[in-house]
Structures are given as C-alpha cells and as structure tokens.
Amino acid sequence: MTIQLEAAQKMLLDMVQTLGTEVLPLAQCSQRVLAETVTAELNFPPFDRSPLDGYAVIAADVQAARPDSPVVLRQIDMIAAGSVSRAVITSGTACRIMTGAPLPSGATGVVRVEDTDFADGMVRIFAGGGIDQNICRAGEEIAAGEEVIQAGTVINAGVMGMLAVLGKACPLVYKKPKVSLLATGSELVSPDMPLAPGKIRNSNSYMLSGQVENAGGRPAFLGQARDEVEAIASVIAAAPACDMTITTGGASVGDYDLIGEVFARLGIDILFEKVSIKPGMPVLAGVKSGKMFIGLSGNPAAASISFETLIRPVLLKMGGRQRWQRPKIRATLARDFCKSSEARRFVWAYWWQDGKAMLVEPLHYQGNGMLKSAMGANCLIVIPTGTPPLASGSEVDIELLAEGVVR
Amino acid sequence: MTIQLEAAQKMLLDMVQTLGTEVLPLAQCSQRVLAETVTAELNFPPFDRSPLDGYAVIAADVQAARPDSPVVLRQIDMIAAGSVSRAVITSGTACRIMTGAPLPSGATGVVRVEDTDFADGMVRIFAGGGIDQNICRAGEEIAAGEEVIQAGTVINAGVMGMLAVLGKACPLVYKKPKVSLLATGSELVSPDMPLAPGKIRNSNSYMLSGQVENAGGRPAFLGQARDEVEAIASVIAAAPACDMTITTGGASVGDYDLIGEVFARLGIDILFEKVSIKPGMPVLAGVKSGKMFIGLSGNPAAASISFETLIRPVLLKMGGRQRWQRPKIRATLARDFCKSSEARRFVWAYWWQDGKAMLVEPLHYQGNGMLKSAMGANCLIVIPTGTPPLASGSEVDIELLAEGVVR
C-alpha cells in the first residue's frame, strides 16, 4: 500500500512520544533542546546599575552644568562593579561609579567620566543634560516571574547566555534519540575491509549516521548483514536498546520481501510499506513495544530522501523540538530539470541569490552520482506530483539545509 | 588605534595557521573538516552491475520481444548480490540477476523481472527494448584516480557516505581549535552560585562557548576573575594549553586598561585595540608564541558581534575550513530601524520570505535585551558606515546563521 507523504508523516509523528529528559551542566548544552520552560526568579538587571564609568548624582543638581559653567560636587564614595555602597546621595554630593556597579541610594542620574574633572575630593561636572538615561533599571531586560525561555527551544548561543543569566547551571534537556543502523546486502563490506570481487562498501549506514546527527540523534552502528532473514533478524534482536532501528536494503523481487519477513519474524507491526515520493518510495515502517523500525531502500538516493522527508521529523519530535519543518522558500530554476514527476519529487540542489532573484540549481543531473549531489547541496527542491519537465526560469519550492554547503 | 574590520580580519587570519590533524574513525567524523584530498583507488561501481532484479541477456536476442510474441531463453545461472558468476551468456541463454549483482560475462542488457515469466528452466521475455540502459557501468559514478573530495571539505551526510564508498574508514581531519574563556569582573559569579547584592551571573562565557562550538571549536571554561591584573594574569598563565584565549570585560575608564595591563604583564604583543564596528568596537587582539589572545567587551551585545565578525573566521581557518564567509543575501526591512550608524553596524534579526520578497526584521529594538535578540535570530543585518536611520522597505544585506531559529 502506497500512502501520501503527509499521511505517513502524521502516522509516525502520532505514534512517537517525546523522549525522556536529563539534567546536564550548562557547558554541555549547546544545540540541545530545553525540556523545561525557564522563568526568571529575579529581575535582570537585579538592581539599578550604571552602564558606564562616571559619577552618580542627583540629576536636578547638574542639569545646568556647561563646559564654561561647571557644577561642583563633593565625592563621598567610589563604587566598583560587584560592590554595594552605603552612601546616600544628597544634593551637592556625588559618588564615583564604575560600569556595572549598583547605583547608590538617592542617585537619579550618572554623568560620564569624560564630562568631569576631579581634584581634592571635589568633582566638576561639565555636562549634565539627560543623565537620567544613564541608568539600567532593575528588571529592564527581564522581569521577575517572566517566562523567558520556552520548553522545546534549541539552545543556541543566545540561549546559552540567557540560561546563565537566569542561574540555570544545569538545565533539563531532552535526551537524544538513539538510532541503530543496519545495512543489509550480501554484497556489502565494512569500509575498512578490502573489496573482494562482486562486493561494494556499506556507505548507507555512514550517510544515514550523518543525517541522524543532523536531526539531533545518536547513531549506533550494527554493521552489515547478509541477505538472509535469520541473519538480519538476529542482529536486530541482539542489538542494544535504542529508540529507532533503521535498515537499508532488502533483496530480490519487491525491495521489502526480505525485511518484511524479518519484521514479521520479530513481531513488528507494519504501519505502511510505500510512500508516494521519488526517490524514496520504499519505506517499510513498523512498530513494536513503542519502538520504531524503519526499512529503507538500499539505493542511497532513495534512502537519503526517505530519511529527510519522513524520519527526520520523527527524530526531531522525539528529541523535543516543537518544529520539524525546514525553512522553505520559492526560487527560480537556473537550469532545466528534464525529468517529469509522477510522484512528488525531491532533488538535492544548491541555491544562491543573484541580484534580488533566488536561484537554484539541481545537482542530481545525468552523470553525477547521488552522493556527489548530496555532498554539494544546500537545499532540496520539492516538485509537486504531476509536474512535467521544468525549464530554466521555472519557479520551485526549496527547503533549506542548515548543514548545507557554502561556496 | 581603531582599525577597519577587513584589516583586523586580515591581520588575524594572516597570523594563524591551520591546526594539526588527527585520524578518526569515520563514524565520529560528522561535521568535522577533512584534512586530506581523497582520491578514488577504484572505479565505482567497481564492476558493471544490475540496478534491478531481472535477467541478464544479450540485448540483440530479446529486442523483438513483445507481450504477444515472447522470446524464450534458457536460464543458466542465478547471481545474487555479492556473488560472482562464472557463467558466460551466449545467444539463447540468460542469467537470473539480483539488484547490485555483477553482470555475467557476455551480457549486454538486463530485462526487468516484471517483464518475464519463468518455468522449467526457461524464461519467457515479454519486453526487450532499451535494456542496455539497465546496466550501471563500472566507474559510472566515480572513476579510479579521480579526486573525489577536496581537503577542507566539511563532512556532511553525503561526504560521510562518499568516504565510506571510497574505503576511507579512518579519515584525516583537522583538530578543533581549543578556546579558553575567562570572564573578568568583580561583579560576576558563576551561574550555579546564589546572587549576593551587587552581583550578576557570568553569562558571556556561556554565550561565547555556544559561538565557539558553532565555529567548530572546543570551549574550555576558565571561570570568572576579579578586576585585578594579578588575578586575571595568574588564571591565564595557569590555564591548560589552548589555541586561543578570550577574555570578556575590562574595568573602569577605557574598557581595556585592565586587560591591556594583563597582556603586557604576560608578554603578549598587541595587534590592535579597537575595530570600527558597532556594537563590538573594543577588541584587544594580541599574540604570544603563536597563540592568540583576545580581550572582548563585557557587554554581551558587543562581545557576541565582535566574535561573529572577527573571531569566528579565525577559528574556521584554524579548523581547516576553506571559507569563513556566511551566506549573504539582500533583504527588505519589514520594520523601521531608528538608529543611525556612524560605524558599520550589525543587528541580530529574523528573515523570512513573503511571496517572492525576502523580508527581515531587526530584533534588537527598544525594550528587548540583547540576549533575547540573539536567542531569536536567524541572521545578522549588516548596515554600512554612515547610514542614516532606515525606514521599513529599505534594502539591506543580511548574513544567514546556519544555527538560526525557525519559526
């Protein structure tokens, strides 16, 4: 049974749960997904503070100060960053204050040190207008009680800094989905082995491991298995626990006879067998005891697209993300695309801007192997079902790859 | 001395060398940078092979085959993927062949199994046109001797697969630059400590650690140091070896008096002190024994932009990348930007496409703290020197962040 991509996505997404959580030191949280909504316990800044080096004063005292008619005040204290002064500013007095230091009691403005001159305990103020703006107010950036970061947020550099501001030294983050990868095919050998006649190296497991990592998962390698139900089933059954198992390759007539038998042998319930996309139509999806089992084509072009369109969203959801769509934009084909597309088609491609036009070049053209295309891609072109060959200049949808190539 | 951004970038890039290399198991190489150009030792595919399940035949034998007038051939062998047949196809004979199996000697085409019928050792062929296309030729994707992947390539999923194809089980990759991070400021406490009066938490080191990781580096935390030359110098002097040391914060008048003294005490030669950008002008850059020392502002807005514009390219070069520019496009402001820009200005922003228009919204507006802007950004707006306030609808350059937010 062939089903539509959206139906297949929904079936898988509805089936999986977001994984459990773990507490990690903040230093290890870059690019992880936050599993708790973080509320500010305190204002930030926690106190009125000076954004510059200068003198804390009563603003009304110095409002009339001019270079040719300075106001003279008595310095009563000096406040370094990190220190608190017990001084109280009254009319006629000032406090030397450093960047980041808390404002002393009574102060209503800060004069820049460049606009002052100090001698014998007295400071002369040469400019005093608008100095009430030179205060960072408590709670100006963050108010106590504010929900500052939502659960499901990817921890980028800004979020790292904000978690530190909020004192979240050990945030709760989602676990990374662990994905076992098994390549099936009697022709396959590990990349570290010499090639006997008739053999090729297992590349699908390595390509998919990169895709799993990009989707926030942890790949686990189960190696290669011969095209025998017993051999494949026993490797899967003996594998360490994981959240998802992906096989590549089937055998003989109807790509999934063999993997279908393996899944049956292991008591895995089949959800669907084919998805209406090209490449990547054969996708045997099954479930057992809440764990997901996916059989992909042994053709790298098909396996990589099935993964991107169908499996990646599932891993992102498992890993706690709120969104699993890639950024999508319209772009103009810079080269003919000669194939017609009976099913929705995905094409590895490279986009760039020329003037105001967003251009895109399909990389999967004649003579260029699929892995070469995937190596150089920074987007995927999405061509709707029933589209004839497309001439250069046609408009297409593209999905941007964050981990794409810059040239 | 204030220097232009390009001059500062060039000075730093010219000073640093690409780091050394290490050999890693391929499974650990995702997103690392390849340090060797990889040449194919063999053709790929290594032999003529069948892309489908069917029958290997002599194409001329079956050219006239039609559903109502099948051609009948004698099956002389069956070839599974991974096996080699000693059979020789002669006129009147055929070999059953599986996807990925090597073509037997003499065969010049493969008939799809769907177009055949088998009984009693004989196969009936119902369609035989164009079957010479059903062969993947040896070397069709990769020719022996071809330079397939260049040194400096970032190992994405496609490259992972290609390295496996080529038998590079343990590629040579560049080491990741190790960057020590020290926050200076007597007001700073670690994020896991309670806040005494006048104190705030060290957020810069955590924000920068995220930026270092995004630039392919390995952050090392040196904690916080009080605003004292001796304290700061001794932490830096005692730190484990690294490729670059970044401090944040200085103290008192002229942001870098203190760090300038620290660098002098440590015998670090100063390259420059200020760069003509906003925010992020104060950047004290120094070098000693080939190691780089950078003093950034304690203001997170300034530190983050100095890092993105100036330090990130240096880390990318150290880590073996050939390119350190971000993808840059033109976009249209979707909101007024009220500040004028005497120096080149960088603004955290969010871009999206609306119809064919690329729109961008500056996030660093009034009332929104800098870290909140960085949390939600997917690009940086670059505003040239001497630009007045910009009205909604103005065109601007934006640099895309790969690790940006999707909403």
From TrEMBL, chains A, B:
Query: What GO terms describe the biological role, i.e. biological process, of this protein?
Result: Mo-molybdopterin cofactor biosynthetic process
Give the UniProt keywords, A-Z.
Answer: Magnesium, Metal-binding, Molybdenum, Molybdenum cofactor biosynthesis, Transferase
Q: Which residues form the MoaB/Mog domain?
A: 180-317
Which cofactors must be present for this protein to function? Answer: Mg(2+)
* GO CC entries: cytosol
SMART domains referenced in this protein's UniProt entry, alphabetically:
MoCF_biosynth (SM00852)
Q: What is its EC number?
A: 2.10.1.1
Q: Which GO terms describe its molecular function?
A: metal ion binding; molybdopterin molybdotransferase activity
Which pathway does the database say it acts in? Cofactor biosynthesis; molybdopterin biosynthesis
Q: Does the keyword Chloroplast apply?
A: no
Recorded catalytic activity of this chain's protein: adenylyl-molybdopterin + molybdate = Mo-molybdopterin + AMP + H(+)
Q: What is this protein called?
A: Molybdopterin molybdenumtransferase
